[in-house]
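# nightly structure sweep
# worker-07 picked up a monomer target from the shared queue
# config: single-sequence mode, recycle default, output format = structure tokens
# input follows
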Amino acid sequence: MHELHDAPLAPLTTFRLGGPADRLLTATTDAEVVAAVREADASGTPLLIIGGGSNLVIGDKGFDGTALRIATEGFELTGTTLELAAGEVWTDAVARTVEAGLAGLECLAGIPGSAGATPIQNVGAYGQEVSSVITEVVAYDRHTRETVTLSNEACAFSYRHSRFKAEPDRFVVLRVRFGLEDAGGLSAPLRYPETARAMGVEQGDRVPAEAARETVLSLRAGKGMVLDPEDHDTWSAGSFFTNPVLDEAEYAAFLVRAEDRLGGDVTPPAFPAGEGLVKTSAAWLIDRAGFTKGYGTGPARISTKHTLALTNRGDATTEDLLALAREVVAGVHEAFGVTLVNEPVTVGVSL
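# output follows
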């Protein structure tokens, strides 16, 4: 394993923020990952797992412990069964499945980060979620000190959540297995209205998988959601807040607040989210609360392309970013009575 001390972590994150780690290890095999985790646990050393760094907000003081960067490689496709090593670059893996003519991941193109992070967050976009195609996750269980295989059901997936996120100090993902679909080169049925509109088809239609992937990449790029080192709108974690899920009473109260603020002719976005639950749009809330594209005057601002992304304009600190996030959370709550929840994982800091 490669080892560095007093190692900068900011370059390992898409925000390009955060202080150094006492020690940084880079593991290129599952065995090295397990060995590093066991060593840290045995010595009581705090451990930070880093994949693609696209979902991390690290404090300016850095991390007092060992950071373990997972850089394992492995793409094994057998028929419609795919196994990815945790360190595989996600967007590259999606492209390879589409090239193979398989459906199930094409609308998840362009999402930054590594394959191992996808089950943790139950990554989803444009009508697809990884939970719909993940069959198993191979992980190291820090409680039992064994490598285990968890079924889809055992992963306890829900909206942007999973067992891995619920028990953050227990499992270290090593490999992810997927069951894809051979639809003769066509995509899975398109579930997201924006994607269907962009392709000139109806929701539920299938299209060439490569065309679906290219459309999603174009839509994401238009929102600053495809990494580009020259574009500060992509110096972000993508969507900084999850879409709020409200129960019936909360939703009713929200509608009253929305009507009081915006008038009775405005209808907030609403999507079914399970029995008695409604999901609304965090981006809509942020915008209608007055935090429009490009909001801010400091080095951390809302993206000029998408209100859901908070960005580093080049010389921000983590505290600059958090100050903006707190301002948005407070403003949305004051306007609509809804509390936004951050999607990225925070290290050494909190909202």
